[in-house]
Design a protein that fits this description.
Layout (H helix, E strand, L loop, with lengths): L2 E9 L3 H9 L1 H4 L6 E6 L8 E10 L2 E13 L3 E6 L9 E12 L2 E12 L2 H37 L1
Antiparallel strand pairs: 1-7, 2-3, 3-4, 4-5, 5-6, 6-7
C-alpha cells in the first residue's frame, strides 16, 4: 500500500494556465518544499510526454537526484511518475497527479502524491514518520499554488 496525500483547491485561472505554471518546475518548487532543486525541466513531445530530473526532500532530508516521466493530457491532467529505468526505483516509487476541472469559479485542482518505499519494512517506518507531514505540506502547497497562479494570471490580465 502506498503512502498517499491529496489536496483540492479552486484556482481563479484556466486549466491550461494552471498546468503550464506547474510544468515550470523551477517556478513550482517555490510552492512545493519537497523539491530541493531541478536538474532538468520537462520538455514535452507532441504527445505531451517528457522527462524531468530533480532532487527531492522529505522532512528536510535530501534524496538522490531522480528521473521522472511526465505525461500531460492537455489541459486536464498531469502525471509525474518515477522512471522505471532509474536506479532510484530500488529505493522508492513515486506518482504525482494534478487533475484540473473547469468550474464557474475557475479550475478545481486536485493534487495527489503517492510514495512507496522499498523494502516493505522501510515503507512501514517511513509511513509513520511522513504521513502527517505530507498531509500538512499538501495543504500548504495547494494554498501557495492558488496564491501564486492567481497573482501571475491577475498581473497578466
Amino acid at each position: 500500500m502506498a503512502l498517499r496525500s491529496e489536496g483540492t483547491i479552486t484556482v481563479e485561472a484556466e486549466p491550461k494556465q494552471v498546468l503550464e505554471w506547474i510544468l515550470d518546475m523551477d517556478r513550482y518548487r517555490q510552492v512545493d518544499q519537497k523539491i530541493a532543486s531541478v536538474k532538468q525541466q520537462p520538455t514535452l513531445d507532441e504527445d505531451g510526454r517528457g522527462t524531468l530530473r530533480y532532487r527531492g526532500r522529505l522532512r528536510g532530508l535530501l534524496g538522490p537526484v531522480d528521473t521522472q516521466t511526465v505525461e500531460l493530457d492537455r489541459w486536464q491532467r498531469l502525471v509525474i511518475t518515477g522512471d522505471p529505468q532509474a536506479w532510484t526505483r530500488r529505493l522508492f516509487d513515486f506518482t504525482g497527479t494534478f487533475r484540473c476541472t473547469p468550474t464557474d469559479a475557475g479550475t478545481e485542482v486536485t493534487h495527489t502524491e503517492e510514495f512507496a518505499f522499498h523494502p516493505a519494512l522501510v515503507h512501514r517506518l517511513a509511513s509513520r514518520w511522513l504521513q502527517g507531514w505530507l498531509d500538512s505540506t499538501m495543504t500548504d502547497e495547494m494554498t501557495a499554488l492558488k496564491r501564486a497562479v492567481e497573482a501571475e494570471v491577475g498581473s497578466a490580465g
